[in-house]
Amino acid sequence: MRILFFSDIDLDLSDDNGDLNELGASFPPLESPPVHFATENNTIVTSQTGSTALVPCVINNIGDGMVSWIRRKDYHLLTVGLTTYSSDDRFQAIHLQHSEDWTLQIKFVQQRDAGLYECQVSSHPPTSIFIQLNVVEARAEIQGPSEKYLKPGSGLRLQCNVLQSTEAPSYIFWYHNNRMINYDVDRGINVTTDLTEKTSTLTITNAATRHSGNYSCVPSNAQPASTYVHILNGENPAAMQHGGRGLSWLQCSPSSWLLIFSVLIIWC
């Protein structure tokens, strides 16, 4: 029996270029998987004015590709990689090392920032998705009419809701005329606020004439709302309409006006 050693065998394990790979054999080159956007095309993002808008773009298999953000309404190049090319420093690409997330951040978002944004990867050929940014104006609303009429001793309840807000306010303050009254328990005023639900309720169990006046609901991140409360002390509510300016005498009938003019003519 003859034992063969590798030194006795002449094998040609070189590739087409005559180079040996680590295993001494040649393999076909591996193709890189195609770029894939995990963020859905035509995603809609809603932010409120004054907040920080985050426009998402998650990309799989980016390889050596470079990510750019483009504002489509004027084809303005905002960022390339982590470099901001816009003179408006509110725009910034947010990306953590080894992550697949290339979010566009817009600080202190304004109504003019609304529109279509393109997230583009410099693959061959370049590939993109489009994200729609909507910007809303958050506002407070006090339920009920803009003017309220109560008798002394009755209860007052004002509920304020923050509408079109994409994030919870950090506070909701109530003002009576120019005084903040959230903590005026000793004056018969109680305020309960649920910031998560974006709502606040003001209650007065025993209203007095000193509680008359303008009440404003002022959230930290929304336009305020106001209502005027009249605590009647024998007055006629109809005579206090239109701000209670004593203009009810203008609501005379045509015959009354004719009598007034006749008297004036005779007197003259």
Automatic annotation (TrEMBL):
Matching SUPFAM superfamilies: Immunoglobulin
Q: Which GO terms describe its cellular component?
A: neuron projection membrane
InterPro entries linked to this entry: Ig-like_dom, Ig-like_dom_sf, Ig-like_fold, Ig_sub, Ig_sub2, Ig_V-set, Zig-8
Please list the residue ranges annotated as the Ig-like domain: 33-123, 125-233
Alphabetical list of Pfam families matching this protein: Ig_3, V-set
Q: Which GO terms describe its biological process?
A: synapse organization
Q: Name the PROSITE patterns for this protein.
A: IG_LIKE
Q: What is this protein's name? A: Ig-like domain-containing protein
